[in-house]
Fold this protein.
Amino acid sequence: MNPPVLIAAGGGGPIIPNFGGNGHAYACEQANRLFCWGWFSHNWSGTLWPALRQHVVLVLIAVAIGFAISMLLALLAHRFRPVEQPVIAFTSFLYTIPSLALFELLIPVPGLGLSRATAEVALVAYTLLILFRNILAGLRNVPADVLDAARGMGMSHRQMLWRVELPLALPAIIAGLRIATVSTVALATIAALVDNEGLGVPILSGINDYYFKTELIAAGALTVLLAVAADGMLVGVQRLLTPWSRGRAA
Amino acid sequence: MHNFVDAIRFILRNGQIPGQPHFTTLTYYALGTLKITVLAMAISVAIGLPVGLWLGHLHRGSFVAINLGNVWRALPSLVVLAIGSAFLGIGLREVLLALVVLAVPPIITNAYVGVDEVDRDLSDAARGMGMTGWQVLTRVELPLAVPLVMAGVRTAALFVVSTTTLAAYAGFGDSLGEIVSNEASYHLYGILGAAICIALLAMAIEVGLALVQRALTPRPLRRAERLARPDELLVPQLEGV
């Protein structure tokens, strides 16, 4: 990555950072345009693409861990009803804590500090309520006569779960995954405050830059695009996994 | 652990650092956060509720109402704030505008879904009894939709508190985020103290709105209400996929 060098545009005008490039590449920056494609393409491979990749990793880890925990808890609550209320209460409590506060409160916890682990713990905490509720709702909404039929066919509890309940709950589960993933993509920008990686880094640096806004706009747009792409992919996964509902899908 | 102890001391000293006088207190920042949250929510509810309720009543515009909620979720609040402040400035009015933009979608989506999903037989029966459209909305649909409508308001309120504190990074100084974003003057324990206050404030708002919801729910429906949580936005997704 090129070290940012500050140059002053003549006449005491705004100080415009020079992110490398040569000759006419400065023209857009000096005119202080809204968005400089030159800057974008010049910083894509050094700054934006690595940040995007880190962002994807942050989100994937958070959603995967959140999904594993929620699935376990939801299966428990599906089997033993009294589990539901305490889990809902605790995950709602986590969900209520504003992101800035949660990230900061985790810093002094032993073993976390300013690290990816801190970011992941907070991001996972926010996925739990959404995923748990959706998985449980999906499992509960399986029609009783379908379950009776399965039982009548001599299926064991485990067989019913794997062959009947989980497949039928899949649309609700994936709906939960979509919400969790999309909101985690947005939330992970704030993780940059405790873990110096992801698209939050160029966003924060763009915010601190009073004049030059390309970096902020580029990183912000990448975040939104990533969320949309992830959402689209999950819709695709659902189509693949639930071929029986394809005819009805609106 | 000593960090958390110091954080509590920091709160008890009302945000003062020993030997380093600040003119502003923790109370000032907490009230600032509360003030802008209340203002932003008042404006957002005044805009979002009528739109959402009316669209739901007419059973029209489902595509817009529901997708508004989906698009909203993908917006990083920090970016909306920062872009807003970059082009409009960072006074109270500009921050309010950004907060309203972020708070209106969940209110509209939930109000829409809440009213739209009221059993058609009920509204038909009400119409058959000679009620006008307005009466059907206010006497039948609205009371039944309270849990969902309020879920949207609660989601929006949490989002507004959380975004207000983030606004400090975009240059808006009158919120608890100002302390969190200023480690140089407040040290880690000051940040923690402010973070604890932010969390407590969010919970107080959540509990307050839950009580409002309870008061608005018709008595016979209150038992079922316990199941309604602040994330009822799940419903359109569950149905619409």
Observations:
- The mean pLDDT of chain A is 85.
- Chain A has nine helices and two strands.
